[in-house]
Automatic annotation (TrEMBL):
Gene3D superfamilies, alphabetized: Tetratricopeptide repeat domain (1.25.40.10)
Domain of life, source organism: Bacteria
SMART domains in alphabetical order: SEL1
Name listed for the protein in its UniProt record: Sel1 repeat family protein
Phylogenetic lineage: Bacteria, Pseudomonadati, Bacteroidota, Bacteroidia, Bacteroidales
Pfam name, any one: Sel1
Length: 376
């Protein structure tokens, strides 16, 4: 490097300045680091100019580290010294800061890539993953999909959560659950794994015995983990299980309401309907009104079946005023949306006499429609 610098290679001058700045291979000398940067800058190397302004301050002919740089100098120096001594994690940390900065110069990227390659050669899992991504997508280096995928797989084997997550998403996008689920099983063994959607998918598989061996307790445990991370589907599934007692789980309406509320906060339409119906059937008037509001919200969120339930509310005057015409309006809207039960509800409305005078002709009309729909 020293020879290249003396022969006028500005990149070599820049790297040599780093050796002197941090005392790598040579005694630490900020003056020599400064001098080599000045020479590189004179040759037009933009990185040298930026480093001069960031790292150094010259006042009254006295050279010192700049105030902004001096705070991080010792940290970076220790990392660089550890990296030169073969510490793969130090190499990774030094490399990743440059590799993931889209605005970094080509020279800084190459320096970062060298650190990442060195760490990867020592089987640092995350360095293998980052290097693999560089090759997969051709980020400033020639694209090599085969090599990139091989590196990512090796990183996953060595327990890189980033690599595991990448492969999980890749195989899921390709509808290959036989490859996805073993990867998720490996990932969830780490407490720090936070992919809530993936955890929820594995929970579904345990509950159904799909690909993996059926294990209700494990499925519930993973549902809870995903739900606590904010996965709305898992929150809904837990609530439904506690509400209905599915899979042999003891019914617990309070737990059901708790998880429905979590899912409702994320605008889950089905959870909004189900919570609305729970409150709708409450003996408390305030709950009934809240239930009616939730049913309307559920429809706005896309649950068309909520229209029937809104119609029932108007028919019975629960949570809102009793209004037979409104009930008819919502039942008919539900029917237009393809909800078969709406036809049966209209048959009941015209026949049972609870909301308006019986109308046998209309009752027979809707009963026939419902029977035809059921027989299709």
């Amino acid at each position: 490097m020293y020879t290249k610098a003396h022969l006028g290679n500005s990149n070599a001058m820049f790297e040599l300045s780093g050796y002197y700045l941090y005392g790598i291979y040579v005694p630490e000398s900020h003056q020599k680091a400064y001098n080599w940067l000045k020479k590189a800058n004179a040759l037009g190397l933009s990185d040298a100019d930026a480093t001069l302004h960031y790292c150094f301050r010259m006042k009254d002919g006295v050279l010192s580290l700049s105030e902004q740089f001096s705070d991080t100098f010792s940290v970076v120096r220790n990392l660089k010294l550890k990296a030169e001594q073969g510490d793969s994690n130090a190499m990774f940390l030094l490399g990743i800061s440059k590799i993931e900065d889209n605005d970094v110069s080509d020279l800084q990227y190459k320096i970062g890539l060298r650190y990442i390659k060195s760490a990867a050669a020592l089987n640092h899992p995350d360095a293998l993953f980052i290097l693999g991504i560089q090759y997969l997508f051709g980020k400033r280096i020639q694209r090599n999909t085969k090599k990139g995928f091989s590196l990512v797989n090796k990183a996953a084997y060595l327990n890189s959560l980033s690599a595991l997550d990448f492969l999980i998403k890749f195989y899921f996008d390709h509808n290959d659950l036989h490859k996805v689920l073993p990867l998720i099983e490996k990932a969830v063994s780490f407490e720090e794994y936070k992919n809530k959607e993936a955890i929820g998918i594995l929970a579904d598989s345990y509950m159904q015995g799909y690909i993996v061996t059926k294990n209700i307790n494990k499925g519930i445990e993973l549902y809870i983990r995903a739900a606590e991370l904010g996965n709305a589907d898992s929150q809904y599934n837990l609530a439904l299980i506690y509400e209905t007692g599915r899979f042999g789980i003891e019914k617990n309406i309070n737990k059901a309401i708790y998880w429905y509320e979590k899912a409702v906060d994320q605008n889950d339409a089905l959870a909004t309907t189900n919570l609305g119906m729970i409150l709708f059937h409450s003996a408390e008037e305030a709950d009934q009104k809240k239930g009616f509001e939730l049913l309307n919200k559920a429809y706005e969120l896309g649950d068309k079946k909520a229209l029937c339930n809104i119609g029932i509310a108007y028919k019975r005057g629960i949570g809102t005023v009793k209004d037979a015409q409104k009930a008819i309006e919502y039942y008919e809207r539900a029917y237009q949306e393809g909800i078969n039960d709406a036809a049966y509800n209209l048959y009941l409305l015209y026949s049972d006499g609870t909301a308006l005078e019986p109308d046998n002709e209309k009752a027979d009309y809707w009963k026939q429609i419902y029977d035809n729909l059921e027989n299709q």
